[in-house]
Amino acid sequence: SPRELAHSARELARVAHPLVVLELGDAARTADDDLRPIAVAYLGLQKGSPALSGEQILAAMKKHAKDGVLVISGVQALGQLRYLGAADLLKARLKTEDYAPKKAVIIAVGQLGDMRLMDEAFRAVAAIGLGDDAAGLEHLDIGALAAVDRLAHAPAVDAAGLQEGGEEIGMAGRHFPQQR
Question: What is the pTM of this model?
Answer without folding.
Answer: 0.62
